[in-house]
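User: Sequence in, structure out. Go.
Assistant: Echoing your sequence, followed by the structure tokens.
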Amino acid sequence: MDFLQTLLITLVIFTVIVVGYLLATGSGAAKAQKRRVQAVRYRHSESLDAKVDAQFKRAVAARKPKSFKVAGSGSRMEALTVRLDRTGKGWTVPQYIYSSVGIAVVVAVLIFIQSGAPLLALGIGAAVGAGVPHMVVGYFIGKRTNAFISKFPDALELLVRGLRSGLPVTETLGVVAQEVPGPVGIEFKGIVDRIKVGKTMEDALQDTGDRLGISEFNFFTITLAIQRETGGNLAETLSNLANVLRQRGQMKLKIRAMSSESKASAYIVGSLPFIVFGMILWVNPDYIGGFFTDDRLIVAGLGGLTWMGIGVAIMAKMVSFEI
């Protein structure tokens, strides 16, 4: 069976699956029309239950809370901009793209000069150019996130002391921005600046929480929002939150210590094929040199690298624990 026949069979199977799904679920327009007809029927029905249900639905629709747009949910470029902003390095999207393309071109040229295989050079160059900048950005995001989480309970305790001394919330936020070093002070300074230009405190906190993507800060945002709606002792609430976040950090350290052996095993299993390949290439280049010249071996090698990447990702997911 040649490539064209395989492609046609794949397209036919995919078309059958899509048509079957549409027949089973129905179109969105038909569902929307059915919902409108049902709403009109309930609205003009003489049944008391139908009238109460229609009034309840209208009341719920009228009282929907304000929804915030999650940062980075608009497009891939927006998501990339948010990732670069989370590093705290001031990198821009054009710089990231130019760096990725430059790394891909350099690696592809070096591999082509060494092996003379254009397919292998393009594959490895594209993989390295896409992967290395992504990993670097992820590393700096993780580093800044860990620095933020480690100092955030201190910032909450400083807020508690300011509130207990009689200062308003906005003033204590300014004190945290001035006194706490690192990313915590920078982010709180941004919150204070947004409040000064006319944003409400809830909106300023929500914008920062969406941009950071840190669950600990989201806890703080939700706590302030609930407290402003229900009232109560804000200083006591924030003090309890600081204790919870410290215990959460201790639990993360315990989980990291308990899973260190599994992570070491995953690192060894994931790196062993590449180490063996490099050693064989160093000892006997002619034995394994076909992977750089033969097109079939090049395709097989790229396929093996793909499956190895999937396996490494699965192992990383298995040894990664979130609380």
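User: And one key feature?
Assistant: The two ends are 51 Å apart (CA to CA).
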